[in-house]
Amino acid sequence: MxxxxxxxxxxxxxxxxxxxxGGDQNEHQVSVELLIDETYDxxxxxxxxxxxxxxxEGLVQGKTFDIKQTVAxxxxxxxxxxxxxxxxxxxxxSYKYSVKVQSNNPSLEIPLIRLLGKVEVxxxxxxxxxxxxxxxxxxxxxxxTGPIYLLPYDEAENEGTKNLLKEDMESSYVPLFPxxxxxxxxxxxxxxxxxxxxxxxxxKGKTGTFWSYVNETNFMTIETGLNNLQxxxxxxxxxxxxxxxxxxxxxxxxxxxxxxxxxxxxTTIEFNMERMPIGGVPATITIPEGLTxxxxxxxxxxxxxxxxxxxxxxSISSLQPGAQILHYNTGDSFEGNEQHPFTSAVLESxxxxxLISTEAHPLPTNxxxxxxxxxxxxxxxLSSNENGASGSFTVTAxxxxxxxxxRIRLTLVIEGKDANGKDQKVVVPYTIIIKNKKSxxxxxxxxxx
Length: 449
Known about the structure:
This protein is mainly β. It has helices at about 55, 155; strands at about 40, 45, 70, 90-95, 95-100, 115, 115-125, 130-145, 145-150, 185-195, 200, 205-215, 215-220, 230-235, 245, 250, 255-265, 265-275, 285, 290, 295-300, 305-315, 325, 345-350, 380, 385, 390-395, 405-415, 425-435. A hairpin with a 5-residue loop joins strand 26 and strand 27 (about 390-395). The protein is globular.
């Protein structure tokens, strides 16, 4: 693009050789000759639906480029085979990249963005009842008809924000859709991942993963009848009411990962900070037994400081009274093939360096406090209480004026006797999320890429 007109159209045929064959990034190269000291706008497209053929044929030199071009909602189900070796290939588009051509900038990388999102549900069987049979798994409700913008929606609105390249999910990132014409319709429908005709089994202590590609959707619209994405799971003799995920939108190219835990354990996770935040998630979060979303989120504000995280075992119905959380003490022995012999808390992600190293509470750099894990595991030093039903650890939040997020995987190992008096261990995983947000921009969602 040059002066808002199409300057040149470069075509790269499907099936040509990628820059790195078999690499994680499917990169292709094209070349063009341009004038030095002139500024050009670059866009990229790939695998567009046939419905856009007329539009593509209209991209000729001298024609005005329409940033508000639309495309019909993609049939997401057709991409669920798990492989795209033989298609269908994901439709993609890009943001605008403006460059003043100079002799010292001979190349430009343009990331392509899929027009579809992906939702992945993980169900962990932490009961003491053997193999779990899942008879149904449904996600409510996703956009199935109606136009979407061919370019990323904020590019189509000429906002220049590049929201889809950002990982934190603020409410201002909610997807925008073109205004419906008189002959256009918009509809929403559930996405079914497991049916009674084809149930899934999950062994004790194992996790089953189920996924689907979906269309970008704003769940807070009137048409869905929902305020956020809900998950419904059908398991014999278990609560099958819909579970709120706190994801109130999904954008194209997002990858939402939703953990579900089925356990006989009730726990409480407490956060204590010198200056507690105003508003946000409560500092004490109880996760009941049954089917739950095993996450506890704590919001700081822009100030930093120590955060003590305490976890308490309230009850476990599959074991006799007196069950305790099993903590590791220096010198304790364990079998090398046992994945979780003791309780651990491991730093999984640390966006924007939210957690920092201090002399009192150093950021873990190895698995010193969880030696049964991989040596790269950043395990925290856990303190256990005398009653054996609780423990704690401390992290330090950095003073930040913008968004940041850290995730900690807390794996409780509970030891006790079953109804027959036999020794049993129950392993229960939780995710602890610590977020930082400027106090003057507090309204956010809890979604994630």
